[in-house]
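Entry:
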Amino acid sequence: MTQNTKNRRLSTYAYLTIIIAGLLSLLYVGSNIIFPIIFAFFLALLLLPAVKRLQKIGFNHFWSSISTVFVISSVMFAFAYLLYFQGSVLVNEFSEDNKTAQIEPEKVIEDVVDGATETVGLSKSKKRSTSKAIFDKVVSFSGTYLGTFFSGLQETLFFLILTPIYVFFMLYYRMNLFEFIKKRSKEESRESNLKTLKSIEEMAQKYLRGLVVVIFIVACLNIITLFAFGIQSPIFLGLVSGILIVIPYIGVAIGGAVPTIIALMTKDSYWIAIGVASSYAFVQFLEGNFITPKIIGDSTNLNPLVIIIGIVVLGALGGVLAMIVAVPLFASVKIILENSKNYKEFALLLKNNITKP
């Protein structure tokens, strides 16, 4: 390898490092502005086929865009209304200031303490005081956990208010983007750049359409589970746990933890909480191994490690909304790298395929 080649590679890596550092800094400073726009971009790609269909049946450019946005906005605000007010009710019921005397899960703590202290010979009164202290902390933590979770959810919903505006203008002026790429691209790279944009569009549409279907199926299964165990607000909790699967791995855990905590705090037997947790685990097993592969397939072709790192990093930068857009965003980055002349090899780090030695 010549010295010039080494220098070119070093300069390429340095340039890429500077770009990544700059992007992360920009996302950290302007996350509340940037991630809603990114979310709106992918939502616009999802709605694009509906806009084109309306244009085919006679709607002009403006009315096809505004009609599609109006319908999706109505659905979004209906969900926002349900999530906000039902979430507020749950927070009020399970906050520390609203604890009730009929909560029975202290038996669970007593059983655990009895088993753990059997060998050290604690007296019965000591065991009771210990289990009482632990139980009070669990209840306090659960109320705080629910409050923090739904507070973050409501904050995310607040930023989504601007989403319909973003989506409308992205759909209405979408051809300007294609024209911009045509005019700014060199003749030899123009076709490749347009192909990259088209690949991102197809990936996003396939992934997001499939994700909507998966969310609906998982939400229905979870609602049935919660009804069967007699958990309060089953429709709300089932919808939330279904929606949370848009955050791979982490969303699944949160979606199952919330109703399990509620079952533990409101039911006489801790076996109900165990049943809820087990049923959620079974539903997630079906989702991960049968439902999602069948409906979505490998439309993003992302390495699971990349997904986890992306969720953690973007979540730290922009919260819940950033975690939602992590998968399609990194899949788009992979497509851009695959179609790049200088950075094509970096796409291998993001792919789910195993390269043979």
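The two ends are 21 Å apart (CA to CA).
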